Amino acid sequence: MTNEPGQEISSHVRFAVQIYLERLRRKFAFADYGTLFGEPAWDLLLSVFIATEQGGALSVTQVSQTTDLPLSTVQRYAGLLEKRGLLVRIRDDSDARRVLLRLTCIASLKMRAFLERSEPMPQVPAGLN
């Protein structure tokens, strides 16, 4: 999740990385509880969004490593996200055995809209304020 030297990181990517790191922090804080607090689809979307926005793509193995999810979980959720039109799998030109993951245009637009926080936050429910 690094950027090329001299290339500016967009506010979308910066916010996505912040969310991603908070999720990892939560995951390790509650590691004794296994996957109880996990959201594999969201973790996969965040990691692939960050890579896509920086002009790259991640392999299934790279997503597994960066999200700390089992490879089988990444493959399963990649399939679900692909069926819903949020993700595409692409064969790597340099290694036909390797599959790269990229967000679709609609997924990128939805992620950017989410990350912009353009909508006002809903009113805090009674009892939480």
From TrEMBL:
Domain of life where this protein originates: Bacteria
InterPro entries registered for this protein in UniProt: HTH_MarR-typ, WH-like_DNA-bd_sf, WH_DNA-bd_sf
Domain HTH marR-type: 50-98
Protein name according to UniProt: MarR family transcriptional regulator
Taxon lineage: Bacteria, Pseudomonadati, Pseudomonadota, Alphaproteobacteria, Sphingomonadales
